[in-house]
Amino acid sequence: MIDLNADLGEGFGRWELTDDEALLASVTSANIACGFHAGDPATMRRVCEQAAAAGVRIGAQVSYRDLAGFGRRAMDVPAGELAAEVAYQIGALEIFARAAGATVSYVKPHGALYHRTARDAEQAAAVVAGVRLSGTPLPVLGLPGSALHAAASAAGLSIVEEAFADRGYRPDGNLVPRSEPGAVVTEPAEVVKRAVGIARDSRVTAADGQQLTLRARSLCLHGDTPGAARLARLVREELTAAGVTLRAFA
């Protein structure tokens, strides 16, 4: 049994990046951009309504305030400021989730914030403080063994281990940086193979050929990967064929 999540609502105004409706037909959890790296009020509202109608769980994908860089540029944000910004993003999405008859079920950092909180205890604690400030003890989705999960556990929040079908892994279990070759996996057959290997066998091949053990409760596909909607459909079909049940963790 595994959850399948994807990043949704990653557009702004008339600019659309993700095929939200198509992705919602395949995933069980939706990481919805909250306006800091992508997304705007109308987009957040629309995707929350679509997710609620599809029975897909809604997650707040929080980010550094970086629309121009899509939240993928390294930034230094004071801990108190970051906590407030995380709470702000969760609160904004919660308005639209409730209006759609649903609720925000979990939190996942995006891009540079995701990678920073995997290793930076102070920034990880700030994100967790933001979750607590939002008023709801939401589960935190992230890399197994990360500083973020350590901070969340210390604060009494539930943690959900995540793995990626369309990203390369280093031998230490961290993701290959997007600035390096092999960071993103786009070949459909390889994405599907990795997804089944992670979900069924808790195994994935690292960039150097080593076999890694990855125990994950949720499997991610990036919504901005070329052909993401088709990849999500293929992954869901192959996971089901392999005897894996897809079910939201939240």
Notes on the structure:
InterPro entries: Glyco_hydro/deAcase_b/a-brl (IPR011330), LamB/YcsF/PxpA-like (IPR005501). Forms a complex composed of PxpA, PxpB and PxpC. With 250 residues, this protein is α/β, with parallel strands linked by helices. The chain has a single domain (3-241), classed as Glycoside hydrolase/deacetylase (TIM Barrel, Alpha-Beta Barrel). Helix content is 39%, strand content 17%. It contains 8 helices and 9 strands. The protein has helices at residues 20-24, 41-54, 79-99, 111-119, 121-133, 147-154, 188-201, 228-241, and strands at 3-8, 29-33, 57-62, 104-109, 140-142, 159-164, 203-205, 211-213, 218-221. A 7-stranded parallel beta sheet has the order 4-3-2-1-9-6-5. A two-stranded antiparallel ribbon has the order 7-8. α3 (79-99) links the parallel β3 (57-62) and β4 (104-109). α2 packs across α3 (79-99), α3 (79-99) packs across α5 (121-133) and α7 packs across α8 (228-241). The protein is globular, with a radius of gyration of 17 Å. It starts with a strand and ends in a 9-residue tail after the last helix.
